[in-house]
Write a structure and sequence with these properties.
Shape: flat
Structural class: mainly alpha
Number of domains: 2
Largest sheet: none
Radius of gyration: 18 Å
Strand content: under 5%
Helix content: over 70%
Order of helices and strands: HH
Length: about 80
């Protein structure tokens, strides 16, 4: 198992978020940089646009999901 699975049984949700986000985002950036190496194969402008659109779409999906989750949890805490 990788670094991601090193767990402190006393870690808070915030600490877990920081640990996992640091690991996962670093790995994602490494993989995105590998996609950049496809430039060696002289992609067309259309191919570059398709690749980038797919990546932008994935990032937008992540952002929406994370923001929706944080909005959900703030609504759950409200009572009248």
């Amino acid at each position: 198992m990788g670094k991601e699975s090193t767990v402190d049984p006393n870690e808070t949700a915030e600490q877990k978020l920081l640990r996992l986000a640091s690991y996962r985002v670093t790995k994602a950036i490494e993989r995105i940089n590998q996609i950049g190496n496809l430039a060696n194969y002289k992609p067309t402008e259309e191919q570059v646009k398709k690749i980038c659109d797919a990546l932008y779409g994935a990032v937008e999906g992540i952002e929406k999901r994370m923001l929706a989750q944080s909005n959900k949890s703030s609504r759950q805490g409200f009572t009248l």
